[in-house]
Here is the input.
Amino acid sequence: MASSHQSASSTSSIVRRTLVVGGVVSAVGLVLSSSLFPHASQAQQAPQQGAPVTVAANAVAPVTPATPQAPVIVKGLPDFTELVEQVGPSVVSIRTTQRVSADGEEGDEADEQMREFFRRFFGTPIPKQDPRRGNTPKKGGEQGEERPRGVGSGFVLSADGYVMTNAHVVDGADEIYVTLTDKREFKGKLVGADKRTDVAVVKIDAASLPAVHIGDVNRLKVGEWVMAIGTPFGLENTVTAGIVSAKARDTGEEIRFIQTDVAVNPGNSGGPLINMRGEVVGINSQILSRSGGFMGISLSIPIDDAMKVAEQLRAGGKVVRGRIGVQIEPVTKEVAESLGLSKPQGAVVRMVESGGPADKAGVEAGDIITKFDGKAIDKVADLPRLVGGTKPGSKSTLQVYRRGAYKDLTLTVVELETDKPKASAKAEGNKLAATALGLTLADLSAQQKQELKLTGGALVEGVEGPAARAGLRPGDVLLAIGNVQIADIKQFDAVLSKLDKSRPVSVLVRRGDWAQYAVIRPTSK
Here is the structure.
């Protein structure tokens, strides 16, 4: 019995120890679980050191709800098949030829060079010539042999046979051939071409042609899908697609381009840029490339600008633009700061054409044109765009910034040819050495003022150091310094003495009929 009692007692002790150990292990596990996976309400705040930790045996951590996801905006890629079927028949291929004299060996060599050009640049062989024509010399008065000159694209503008393309596609061509998608080929007549916008219109003798639909460029958005159809490297009806990368891309030319990443290569020029509604929104015109081939940046002429040009070409064969008779350059940051402008914007007048609209209105060389007909001139290229689009004979208002103040001038826009620049003046009269600026100056004679149509100024006789680094030359005439107009070298010296010699000095320089600002950094003492 004693033995049995001891055995039972021992067993009971073992069970108690096991339960105690198990309870401790469970408690430790709960504590660790609570530490590693805290409650949501405790996630942002750690318990204070030394504070008791209470563990509920049956506690269940709540599940934090997931953040709602934004709806998917773009689903899959667009299908262009219907667009190709709709617009494809309106796209044409254009090849141009030039008549050249064929005179034996020289003609054979030129022919081989042309073949090599086509093989390397277009990837296609040159169209074979009629063997019956040969390379025999032509009789007096007979036209030369017709040779291929270039390949491009275009699109049907109207059902009666007007076709739009790039001016550079048909430039210098003696003959123009237009091929439709149904393989019919027509000889085209050049209605007109405008090199400044690179737009041309060709007429073919055909009717009931499938004309394109013209889109609204203002509705075009960056990131929108667009498509191009053309004849790259002579491969007819080639379709490529991409997105609009930017709008109103300014390259310094008369128009602002639509930038895309649509693959455009030699031969695509003149073809349409098409939106997802099947409308033409641009003419593929240029690529930016270091290799000569497509590198991801294509530029298209906005169709609204192209249509304005096409209307004038169809009406009169040329584009009439307005002119105000000035030559301009950009406003640099340094010039803007030195003249007190808040930012570098506007167009600096370098030259005023004698007897032109600007001259009659009182515009002076050195003026900064800031507005035209109430529209701000942010970049120098804005002014020729606005003036060019103004009908000759219209009255317009210029806002100019002159010597620290704004002034409004009224003029009549006309078509005006530029005059040839006059020669630089020669030194006469008193002299002044402005050593801090590196200038040697002289007064202008009465005859020089009359020839240059000036009332005052200081003639540059010599330059060195700071003036030379600023680009000044002997023969230049200084019209103003530090935004103050000067009459002679005495006034120049008086104004210079009041300026801070440690800061750059702006001077208005007349060179021939041109004027521009220069910034001279004085020699530090």
